[in-house]
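W.,

You were right to be curious about this one. When I first looked at the sequence I had no strong expectations either way, so I just let the prediction run and decided to look at it fresh. Below is the sequence, 190 residues in total, followed by the output.
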Amino acid sequence: MIVAEFLRKLNISKKPGAYSYVVLDCGGTTGNAKRTIPASFRADAVFDAAFGSNYAPMYQMVSGQRVTERLDKAEREIDDIVKHINARDIGMFINQAGRFPRLLTLFGYPLYKYGRKTNKFTVNDSCTGYGLCEKVCPRKVIKLENGKPVWTAPRCEICLSCLHRCPAAAINYGKKSADHGRYLNPRVKI
């Protein structure tokens, strides 16, 4: 949602020779996510790359060799995308749409868009009040109160940065995330 809002506000006048593109990233499939790009942002090319899911409320987080394999594959995909961008190729370069992409986005996107409810976040007793959750929230809807995170808005991005970055693994979303582990890309340092 935050990216779509940014693209809607972006005022780009298409000058002759200008080239614009979008890279969709996903856990496993992008579905028909290209349709969620605002019409006001006229992309010359749309690409996608899969990095593996970090959606702990639904999936068990992978680790070890499986992470390495997924990241190596994603880096190869990014290398291909860079080649297309450098060549200023035009078109849809979607490789991760999955099965039934229109149906996936038709039903999945509204669930995300109108869902994203912060009341599903819980904090367990292992919370140390470190505050990293507050710092990493792109919507700035987490505030520490009495040393514990509190969500100050009814919705957020559900990026789960707070959940995955919490050094005490004290934040959960829904009933299953506590048992699904945490994921931090070992190749990214914040």
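Here's what jumped out at me. The two ends are 22 Å apart (CA to CA). And, maybe more interesting for your project: The beta strands are 21-26, 45-50, 91-93, 121-123, 142-145, 148-151, 171-173.

Coffee later to discuss?

I.
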